[in-house]
Specification:
The complex is a heterodimer.
Chain A: H1 2-23, E1 28-33, H2 38-53, E2 57-62, H3 66-78, E3 85-89, H4 95-99, H5 107-113, H6 115-118, H7 123-128, E4 129-130, E5 133-134, E6 136-142, E7 147-150, H8 151-157, H9 165-177, E8 181-184, H10 189-204, H11 206-213, H12 218-221, H13 225-237, H14 249-257, E9 261-265, H15 270-276, E10 285-288, E11 296-297, E12 299-304, H16 311-325, H17 327-337, H18 353-362, E13 368-369, H19 372-375, H20 378-393, H21 399-410
Parallel strand pairs in A: 1-2, 1-3, 8-9, 11-13
Antiparallel strand pairs in A: 3-12, 4-5, 6-12, 7-9, 7-10
Chain B: H1 7-35, H2 51-58, H3 60-91, H4 98-110, H5 113-124, H6 130-136, H7 153-178, H8 182-191, H9 195-206, H10 208-223, H11 227-232, H12 244-254, H13 258-292
Classes of the chains: A alpha/beta, B mainly alpha.
Chain lengths: ~425, ~290
Amino acid sequence: MKKIFSILLTIFVPLSFTNVSKAGSHMEAEVIHWWTSGGEQAAISQFAEAWQEMGNTWIDTAITGGDNARGTTVNRIIGGNPPTAAQFNISKQFVDLVEQGLLQSLEEVASAEGWRDFIYPPELIETCEFEGEFYCVPVNIHSWQWMWINNDVYKQVGLPVPQTFEEFLAGAPKIQEAGIIPLALGGQTWQESGMFGVVSSSILGFPHMQKIFRDKDVDTLRDGRFEDVLNTYRELNAFTDEGSPGRLWNDTTAMVIEGKAAMQVMGDWARGEFAVAGKEAMVDYSCVIPGKEKYVALGGDVFVFPKNDDPKVKEVQLAMASMMVNPTVQAKFNNAKGSLPMRLDVDTSAADACMQMGLDLIQNPDAIMRESDDWNTPAFTNAWDDIISEFRNDPNYTVAQVMDDLEGVLTSGL
Amino acid sequence: MSKFRNIASIIALLPMIIISLTVFIGCIIYSFIYSLTNSKLIPVTNFVGFDQYDRLFKQRKWDVAVENIFIYGFVFTIGCLIIGFLLAVLIDQKIRGESLFRTIFLYPYAMSFVVTGLVWKWVLNPTFGLENSMHMWGFSWFQLDWLVNRDLAIYAVCIAAVWQGAGFVMVLMLAGLRGIDEDIWKSLSIEGVAKWKSYVFVILPMLRPMVVTAIVLIAAGVVKVYDLILALTSGGPGYATTTPAMYVMENFFQRANLGQAFAASIIMFISVVCILAPWAFYEFYLRNKYATN
């Protein structure tokens, strides 16, 4: 008897609680994201706190790894149990969802608050706008275009801190002789292809890249300059260590922090690792945007709001979208994240020397660079990245073969 | 008449048969239909013929994956059988502390492939694994870079897999060895047959059912190998240790390329059927036929 009672209790008590919470007037929102590392947690909790200050409930669904988080979001949307908000990257990742009419249009709040006037750079509007309506909220800008350099290592071997890949390559043998790994690179496809992207943009420049990745122009790919990129990349790889395959990006950054390695090419999220280790920008370490023309890439994150059968959810979603672009929330969020805000009227007085460099650069429209995934589907970018990763790992994969395979991807219509 | 003799058991099996037909066959048909579309993030019925298959066979990565599954399947199966049989024979020598050794050898099998993968990842890592330890002990000539060498990495995966699977084969074989009649051993020793000869030429053929069971169980694990490689190498260096199952999972969940994933899984399915069908035909049909005749 007692057992039956306890079973009934377990069934009905939660039910009655859900009824109570639904009856309440405050808004409840479940947010799927993949910000799980220390700095990232600090950033997302800025959103959560701001939301809770408005008297609402924030249900945090943090899922490790962007792929897993996005997979969960899509499965739940198709399964009919969508979250209130979900994180994606500034890219074409969620285009299918918009085309299938699965996302909530944010146009009401966007036109009421004038998002088109303050979102900067305007390229971000392009990412979120479909047929004249807003479908996502850009929250930050992350750029891949950085070399992270341990200053002590260069002092020790008596060389100036390199400003380009050519300078780095010239000094690398001397660093190797001193028993230090010149280039720290984690051997995972996304890290390998990310560094390749930085090498290509620093050698080719953005207009050239745009012709290849946006216009799919085979003649531009074949004009002989891309071979330089491949050769430089191969030269750089000669200076990595044999522990590279499979190493995580933050373990790799730690090698630079500890002085076991001289340099790592990584996005500006690496700055968080230096900050946590108590290192000071431009004193202990340098951040360099390599190349003669300096670019800041428009990577970063957006939130989308899947459509829900319950009409009350739309209200919640619009309120949250509005909160995310709020300048005060943006300032807190981006200072914690180490990323650049998506509007210019945000207080960035807490920015360090490296972040300031990014902030200065982004005000110049010519320095803003877009990446392959702004124009191309994940299927395309991944097929491309596979070739780059294989090129890095297989010394028998010749530059000529790679060029043929890259052209194959470019013309595949993926 | 004999067909209706087992009517009760057929009725009992009916739910399972229905589930198999709807879930398994249904999903296979669904996968095939969508493998003919250009579905990306979500399934859409935008048919493109056999484009996905065409694209699949042009992928260098797919070729590597197929090659790897054959290497892995061969080395893993043979390795497990040989080492498992040897361990069983050694334990069968009425040694002291038998149950202790049996436990030690079977222990790896109780672990998940993820744990095995991580353990071997650390052991084989050249910068802080066994190689590093040997260097610190003064053996500077020692080199163990299998995991980071793209030609050898798949064999490193095989080592980890055999380490895990051999104990299981050992237990199966040992059970078989214990079932061998004592009189056979007596007659073999009267004939003066060398011990290794009696094991290889007399006992091993008698263990045929055990060997078949072991091969079936191991082979089933070969096709679906995924977690071990994910934990050990994540398919690297580059994509040198990728497998068809990883290719499918990657396209499903990371690359938002459903059509390609469906096409690859249909090819996996067809190849498994091609390999298993003749064997199943022999094992379950021809043998029974000859046996009853």
